[in-house]
Design a protein that fits this description.
A: Rossmann fold, 6-stranded mixed beta sheet, 4-stranded parallel beta sheet, 11 helices, 10 strands, 41% helix, 16% strand, B: alpha+beta, Ubiquitin-like (UB roll), 5-stranded mixed beta sheet
Chain lengths: 315, 92
């Protein structure tokens, strides 16, 4: 192939890069799947293209239609890029406490931003999008938390790419957000080799949980249930913001300028490496560092940056 | 053995407003049972009537979700911290 006929063809087939210099265990190799090289800048390009393509195939989506989606950034940005190319309007329900660059990128691609309160976090954005889509039945609500196209992008793309590039994989480590990456990749890898362990990494629940009025306001993504997430995962562990930023900085030592959630996943991979005798760990670095320059993550005092991260959605 | 149990805001009214408690037990399940016997208002809030963990409750032993350890049978060591948290939507 000498050229791509559309930028959308460059989504996926991301590089897998060994970062074993950072492994705390000399018998465990660690590889980073660099999703920041996708054209919209994150792993969510895969999800955006997959969900839009499915909706087009089902006849739900046609040019001129308006999409609505709750997103703290990356899915919104991916959808905004795909929508711009394909001629859809996009409204993104965005929690107020995301980095300024995420907001700017949505504007670059021409998405309309609908703010949702910072203190309600992603839960609040989901609820608001659900309400708006009910009130406006002509909107197309792809709903990444419940859309089978989300894990499918990883079952058919990310998972096979990892298996082809690293057939010696023993552990897969990824952040848990919508659970799409973990469900899709995890299911694919376990079908190839059931002994592969799947680790979910998550940031601390933070202040959002304090705003919950009752347990029934809790939320678990439908795709987690649809894919028997509890059986699929082997471990679920929390990594705090300070550790995430420390590892985001260490990734720079091996030439990887990645976002803070990549530092979270790398921290999880390091914890995994320290807990096993030998093996090969693959983790997903969801985006590049560009969108987080304003957070000072690499350059300012770590305690100042950590405190700031507690109030920002970086995952 | 007693361990520290941290509680989310929405469960604090059931335990006299405390944000954390020192509770006796050798497994996570024993600790929860002990808490419920001291604070009967917690009945049904963490464990459902058929003995399962409430679907919107996550319990962490230090940093690990006990659903992927030995669930309520997960054994405790001195100095462990148990955190009880409601499930919320993650980043996206």
């Amino acid at each position: 192939m000498t050229y791509y006929s559309t930028i959308l063809e460059t989504i996926g087939n991301t590089p897998l890069v060994e970062v074993s210099q950072l492994s705390p265990n000399p018998s465990v190799r660690i590889f980073a799947k660099l999703e920041g090289v996708n054209p919209g800048g994150s792993v969510k390009d895969r999800v955006a293209l997959s969900m839009v393509t499915e909706a087009e195939n089902q006849g739900i989506l046609s040019p001129g239609k308006t999409l609505i989606e709750p997103s703290s950034g990356n899915t919104g940005i991916g959808l905004a890029m795909v929508s711009r190319i394909k001629g859809y309007k996009l409204k993104v329900v965005l929690p107020a406490n995301v980095s300024i660059e995420r907001r700017q990128l949505l504007q670059v691609w021409g998405a309309e931003i609908i703010d949702s309160p910072a203190k309600e976090g992603s839960n609040g954005a989901v609820r608001k999008a659900q309400r708006l889509s009910k009130e406006n039945p002509d909107y197309v609500f792809l709903y990444q938390y419940g859309n089978p196209g989300n894990p499918k992008a990883h079952f058919e793309g990310t998972g096979p790419e990892i298996w082809k590039d690293c057939p010696q994989i023993t552990h897969f480590v990824s952040g848990l957000g919508t659970s799409g990456t973990l469900m899709g990749v995890g299911k694919f890898l376990k079908e190839q080799d059931p002994s592969i362990q799947v680790w979910a990494i998550e940031p601390p629940a933070g202040e959002v949980v304090d705003g919950l009025r009752s347990l029934e306001d809790g939320y678990i993504p439908p795709i987690f249930f649809d894919n028997n997430g509890e059986d699929l995962l082997d471990r679920k562990t929390v990594i705090g913001p300070k550790e995430s930023i420390e590892w985001t900085r260490k990734l720079i030592d091996v030439g990887i300028f990645a976002g803070i959630s990549s530092g979270t996943a790398m921290a999880g991979a390091a914890r995994c490496a320290a807990s096993i005798k030998e093996g090969s760990i693959v983790f997903v670095a969801p985006d590049g560092g560009w969108k987080y320059l304003s957070t000072g993550a690499w350059t300012e005092d770590i305690d100042v940056v950590t405190e700031r991260a507690r109030h920002t959605i970086y995952f | 053995m007693s361990v520290e149990v941290r509680l989310p805001t929405l469960l604090r009214p059931h335990v006299g407003g405390n944000s954390s408690l020192e509770v006796e037990g050798n497994t996570v399940g024993q600790v929860i049972d002990q808490m419920v016997s001291i604070y009967p208002d917690l009945e049904g809030q963490i464990i459902t009537p058929n003995g399962d963990l409430h679907k919107f409750i996550n319990i962490y032993l230090n940093d690990d979700d006990i659903r992927y350890l030995d669930k309520l049978d997960t054994k405790l060591n001195a100095g462990d911290t148990i955190s009880i948290l409601p499930a919320v939507a993650g980043g996206l």
